[in-house]
Amino acid sequence: MGESVIRREIQIEARTEKLDELLDILRADMEEMGCPMDKQTTVEICAEEIFVNIASYAYGESVGDAYIEEEIGKNSVTVCFRDKGMPYNPLEKEDPDTSLSADERQIGGLGIFMVKSMMDSVSYEYKEGANCLTMMMAW
Fold first, then answer.
1. What domains sit in the chain, N to C, each tagged with a CATH number?
2. Which of 31, 97, 114, 139 has a C-alpha 20 to 30 A away from that of 78?
């Protein structure tokens, strides 16, 4: 039988074209650890949202790297996204009023709201010159 935990650090250029590369790694590791398909799908959707936000906003007009640390065990997956872009805590953004129609709502914030709603826990900290957003899903 394989290891009881997979730990991996991934450094990837923060460009949306690199998203599939990241998702392929996460998917393979979750499958290896027996993560249920519905949980895999949730983690992939949330990972896509966070990575695309880093690629789109963290470095302004320039391009930097995203650093992803994953820890996948028999009953949970934790993924930490780090970037050395502009300090920004997406968890401080007020949740959108989902009772309003799409036309009535302010632009932005729905993606991080979705991540907070779908994952078991989401936290943010700024340390050592980097944004660090960590999300966890248990099963």
1. 5-138 (3.30.565.10)
2. 97
